[in-house]
Amino acid sequence: MTRISTPFTARTTAAEVLAGVDLTGRRIIVTGGASGIGLETVRALRGAGADVTVATRNPAAGERRLDLSDLGSVRAFAASWTGPLHAIVANAGIMALPTRQVTAGGWELQLATNFLGHFALVTALHANLRQAGDARVVMVSSGAQLGAPFDFDDPHFEKRPYDPWTAYSQSKTADVLLAVGAARRWTDDGIIANALEPGYIHTNLQRHVDAATMRSMGAMDEAGRLLTPDYFKTPEQGAATSALLAGSPLVAGVTGRFFSDNQEAEVVQGGPGVMSGVASWAVDPEAADRLWAYALDAISS
After folding, report:
1. For residue 269, what pLDDT is reported?
2. DSSP SS3 for 284
3. Quick one: pLDDT at residue 203?
4. Where are the transmembrane segments (predicted)?
5. pLDDT tens digits, residue range 203-243?
6. What gap in Å lies between CA 114 and CA 92, rounded to an integer?
7. Percent of the chain, pLDDT > 70?
8. What is the pLDDT of residue 208?
């Protein structure tokens, strides 16, 4: 299967990706679209003419409330949606919570927020996506998916010691598996589903990351001031691959793939020290089907 390539680069902005693209009449939801790369995704999509709904935990005027860690909130949001839905950009997330936290349903909070809430939202809106006839599901994952597979034996760290980065990596692997699972089920409904990593960007996502880790990345000095290493992107650049998958005709009909820097990524063996590509465990169809069944059971109970 030939990997998809585009004329864009890691430094292309979301607005540049959609330059000349007309998304008039297309209705799109962006979770976590009030700040960071979510906000830049919204701006680019609206700039191309799309009708974009921002779904966020703390909505301002013109935005709608959605708490992905609360399945009741997800169900209420989905039930309030009427008519076709042309795309969902599952952008909201949390990262590296220093201590293990669980939802009322017993799910580890990073996995619940980053994956299960989005799974519940996407599946609840399946009929609306199908109604559009040409819809897209965009899962904003991370290069962290290279760090850990989904642990079906202990996904909520009930037995093993909790580790902030393992929990985050697992949740981002789950996001890719969601896209693979949707691609395996919904192609005949006119729905494509893909996942991506945005790269390194200074956003609110890093609010739980300790200073030592930030310094090791070259992203903070000894006085606690943020630095911007050369490999970091601006939020406008970080949103580009989301904009590509949500609105560009260059990926029409492409489904079940993982993108980085506006290109389809190579499938690699994940593990320590692997810095690029998508881990084979994150695009494994058997794991995707197993996780789909696990998540369906979780949101039904």
Report:
1. 96
2. coil
3. 61
4. none
5. 665 566 666 776 766 666 787 777 677 777 999 999 999 99
6. 7
7. 93
8. 63
Containing structural domain, residue 77: 20-211+237-300
CA–CA–CA angle 236, 65, 198 (5° rounding) = 25
With 0.85 as the threshold, say if the pTM is over it.
yes
Residue 60's pLDDT band, with cuts at 50, 70 and 90, is: confident
Residue 10 within a domain: no
What tokens appear for 47 in the block?
A: 């700039």
The verdict on whether 200 is a catalytic residue reads no
Angle at 269 between CA 263 and CA 272, to 5 degrees: 105
- The catalytically annotated residue of 168, 200, 231, 294 is 168
Question: What pLDDT is stored for residue 220 in this prediction?
Answer: 67
Evaluate whether residue 264 is within a structural domain.
Answer: yes
Residue 272 tokens read as 């320590």
Q: Which CATH number does the domain housing residue 82 bear?
A: 3.40.50.720
Report the number of distinct structural domains present in the chain. 1
193 bridge partner residues: 137
Residue indicated by tokens 């030939």 = 2
Instruction: Tell me if 228 is assigned to some domain.
Output: no
Terminal CA-to-CA distance of the chain, rounded, Å? 38
